[in-house]
Amino acid sequence: MTDLLRYESELLRAGFHAIAGTDEAGRGPLAGPVVAAAVILYPGQMLSGVNDSKKLTERQRERLFPLIMAEARAVAIGICDHGEIDKLNILRASLEAMRRAVTSLTVAADFILIDGTFSLTLELPQQTIIKGDSLSLSIAAASIIAKVTRDRLMVEYDALYPGYGFAAHKGYPSAAHRAAIARLGPCPIHRKSFRGVKEFVGSEV
Predict the structure, then answer these.
(1) Is residue 171 in a domain?
(2) I need a surface site. Which of 10, 81, 88, 164 has the fewest CB within 10 A?
(3) Distance of alpha carbon 105 from its chain centroid, rounded?
(4) CATH number of the domain where residue 143 is located
(5) What's the number of CA atoms in the CB half-sphere (13 Å) around residue 128?
(6) DSSP symbol at 118
């Protein structure tokens, strides 16, 4: 069984006191923002049921969201919208969203654990971890906060822009979503630099 506190425990022993795990949700969709979260746990804190958000059902994530918000030492969210994604590119926008989340924490982080392979442009010690959302509890908690926050935003967008099915697919490139873009053209929150959208720019109804 994976020790989800291994990285945090090693850093605590090294003298760090506010270790932020950060992750993002929404790199793959054709519409909507990329949302990141940063979470600082108390030393040795366990959160029962918390794991990589992709391994959890929507119901499990919704149940864990308020638990993490209430019991973690600090939680913050960072967002880059569709326009920033088109301007920066999705990788840079994802990293910027994570940077915004870390810098928005009410407890100043002294170390950052980052899901993936790219570091953040912050003057803080940090470590990237491939599949970190499966290996670090603070990153896993951040993955849940980011995923639930983004899914809720996409449900709101579904009401604003009906016909695309955002509440169902959350902006990901499902067959139904692709068909809706072909039928209706892109809506204001579509990522116009993405393949599957850019071909239809100018065909908005």
Answers:
(1) no
(2) 10
(3) 15
(4) 3.30.420.10
(5) 9
(6) -
170 lies in some domain: no
Residue 3: is it exposed, middle or buried by C-beta count within 10 angstroms (0-12/13-18/19+)?
exposed
Domain assignment of residue 35, yes or no = yes
pLDDT in tens, 136-187: 999 999 999 999 999 999 999 999 999 999 999 999 999 999 999 999 999 9
pLDDT digits (tens, 9 = 90+) for 63-94: 999 999 999 999 999 999 999 999 999 999 99
Q: Is 167 left (phi over 0), alpha (psi -120 to 50) or beta?
A: alpha
Do the domain assignments include residue 65?
A: yes
Helix, strand or coil for residue 98?
A: helix
* Separation CA 111–CA 13 (nearest Å): 13
In terms of pTM, does the model score above 0.85?
yes
Count of domains in the chain?
A: 1
